[in-house]
Each structure stands twice: as C-alpha cells, then as structure tokens.
Amino acid sequence: MTSFGTADLKKMFDAIAAAIEADKDRLCQLDGVIGDADHGIAMALGFNAARDAVAALDAATVEPATLLNTAAKSFLNAVGASSGPLYATAFMRGAAAVKGKATLAASDVIAMFQAMAQGIKDRGKAEPGEKTMVDAWQPAAEAATAAHGAGKDLAESLGIAFAAAERGAEATKDMIATKGRSSRLGERSLGYIDPGAASAVLVIGAIRSSLAG
Ligand code: ADP
Ligand code: MG
Ligand code: MG
C-alpha cells in the first residue's frame, strides 16, 4: 500500500485494541510488580473505546486527522490512569501532523508516528532512561524517521521501529524509575520491565502490522 485513508486507520485501531486485549493480563502483571496492577485494564478500556468511537465514523467523509482526534477524546474519557492523557496527547499530535490530508503517504505516516512519540514525551515530561513508555516510543520514532529518510519503504521503516521499541522496552529492566507511580520504588524498580514500555511495543507492533503488514 502506498496511501492510507480513514478506513485504514480504523483497521489500525482494531489491530491495537486486539493486541492489547490479548496481552491485558500480562500488562496488569507487569504493573503489579512496580505499579498498581491496572495498566492492562487501562489500556484495554482506552483502546476499546477508541476503536468503537472511530468505527462509528464515516470513512468516506471523515478525514484521518478527525479520526485521530476522535480516538484521543474517547481514550482520555475512558482511562483514569496516567496512560490516558499520554495516549490522548499522542493521538492529538498525530492528528495535527496530518491535518487537512484526505489520504496519507508513507511520509505522512512516519510524521504521524514521530508526532505521537513526541506528544507522549511532552505530556509526561519524561526523558529516555526514566523507565517509561518513552523508552520504547522515542527510539522507535527515531528509527522510523531515520530508516524512512535513508530511503526504506514504510513496511521496512516500521519493522525497524518495532525492533527498536522491543530493545527499548527490554532495556527498561536495567533502569530505575524516576517518573510515574513506580518512581516511588526507587532502586527497587530495578530488574523489571516497565509496563508502559511493554504496552508501547504492542501498540507499535499493531501499527506496523495493520499499515505495513
Ligand atoms: P497509573 O500509573 O496511573 O496506574 P498506568 O498503569 O496506566 O497508569 O500506566 C503506567 C505507565 O505509564 C508506566 O509504566 C509508564 O510507562 C507510563 N508513565 C507514567 N508516568 C509517565 C510519564 N511522566 N511520562 C511517560 N510515561 C509515563
Ligand atoms: Mg497502573
Ligand atoms: Mg492506576
């Protein structure tokens, strides 16, 4: 595929919601170790709400930016946990990056992806190394942008981004949390994967498989 429309983004939200639902228990377990055990529930509530809200839109008349803003609103309304505003901001920034476009070229998808990662970083004010979802999103976005800039196609660029997200999430094991709920544990957060980084791998994997599978 070389261009993506609202119908494709609906499929993307279907894929993300399915991936989160399938691993909901594992995400709650990860959050149970260094947080409050609700991350899988929060992400499932958010992405199920986003999937349902965008499914109700008319793909023939609604543009991608409007779909992403709809997803942002429904995600925020559905989630009480800190992942709520983080992903809502991601989708709002993704919307701003593709505003006014009826269809998205590969470069627009990369720009949307990069804007989502930046939105999470801006909203949470976390830098890489603080043991958060930023440790998966930022290297993924950087890898996608670099790969696309070097002439790789969308499938390859998102594949490289996914691998970077996996490595980034794995690396959170060796980090001490300094942002979010798990920062209260200090050094006791060492040795465990951050749940938000683990769910980011699922989200990024579903974006990849739905848009570039
Ligand atoms: P809560 O901690 O409110 O229960 P969740 O369990 O849904 O929220 O999400 C926890 C995840 O949110 C963490 O694993 C981490 O990845 C992410 N997170 C928390 N605070 C921040 C932040 N300031 N910036 C980026 N990500 C954060
Ligand atoms: Mg939690
Ligand atoms: Mg909570």
What report would you give on this structure?
- With 213 residues, the chain is mainly alpha-helical.
- The protein has a single domain, classed as DhaL domain (Serine Threonine Protein Phosphatase 5, Tetratricopeptide repeat).
- The chain has a two-stranded antiparallel ribbon.
- Helix 4 runs antiparallel to helix 5.
- It is globular.
- 55% of the residues are buried.
- It binds adenosine-5'-diphosphate and magnesium ion (MG) (2 copies).
- Adenosine-5'-diphosphate (ADP) binds next to helix 3, helix 5, helix 6 and helix 9.
Question: What descriptors fit this protein?
Answer:
213 residues; mainly alpha; Serine Threonine Protein Phosphatase 5, Tetratricopeptide repeat; two-stranded antiparallel ribbon; 9 helices; 2 strands; globular; binds adenosine-5'-diphosphate; binds magnesium ion; kinase; DhaK_L_YcgS; transferase
Helix tally equals: 9
SS-based structural class? mainly alpha
Number of domains: 1
The CATH superfamily name is: DhaL domain
- Binned strand content: under 5%
Helix content: 55-70%
Using only C-alpha atoms, the radius of gyration works out to: 16 Å
Listing every helix as H and every strand as E from the N terminus to the C terminus, the arrangement reads: EHHHHHEHHHH
Q: Please state the second-level CATH architecture.
A: Alpha Horseshoe
Small-molecule binders here are: adenosine-5'-diphosphate, magnesium ion
- The level 1 CATH classification is Mainly Alpha
Silhouette: globular
Mean pLDDT comes to: 97
Topology-level CATH name: Serine Threonine Protein Phosphatase 5, Tetratricopeptide repeat
The separation of the N and C termini measures: 10 Å
Number of distinct beta strands: 2
Strand order of the largest sheet: 1-2
Taking the sheet with the most strands, its summary is: 2 strands, antiparallel
- Low-confidence stretches are none
